[in-house]
Amino acid sequence: MTNKLKIAFACNLFVAIGFMVQGLVYFFSSQFMPYHANITGCAWTEVPPEFQPLILALIRGGGIASFTSGLAIAVLTFIPFRKAQTWSRWAITGIGLCGTLPLLTIIISLHVKMDSPPLPLLILAIGLLIAGFLFSSNMNHTKTS
Question: What angle, 0 to 180 degrees and rounded to 10, lies between the N-to-C axes of helices 3-27 and 119-135?
């Protein structure tokens, strides 16, 4: 693997780990995040008990989606990407952008209501996905290993 591909590998792996960690945090959450409280203007304890299960289901669903996206990126990074299969760089980037761009639009639309949105980490993830894609641009010119 060339140095550029090693950098791309690291970028992809960092994004995969980030997705999986975020997914686990959201999946095992017992209440909404501090920035959710900021948006709603109320603490979790002020949310009517009949709405709490629905909100937790949505949060946990987002966590499952994030975790499985990260897992897919990790598997693609460790297997076909390491074998320099060109299609994998497209798949990794596509899965990653499908997981980040919708969140970016949501966070931007709510940004004015948030004190500390997770925007910097999301922008970092998008940047790493793009960097990984660009650093692997010569993948089709390398030998499989």
Answer: 150
Predicted confidence at residue 115, as pLDDT, reads 65
Neighbours of 88 (CB within 10 A): 21
Residue 107, pLDDT above cutoff 70: yes
Q: How far apart are CA 74 and CA 72, in angstroms?
A: 5
- Whether the pLDDT of residue 145 is over 50: the answer is no
The proportion of the chain whose per-residue pLDDT surpasses 70, expressed as a percent, equals 91
Core vs surface per residue 68-82: b (16+ CB within 10 A) or e: ebbebbbebbeebbe
Whether the CB-CB separation of 70 and 16 falls below 8 Å is answered with: yes
Residue ranges per structural domain of the chain = 3-141
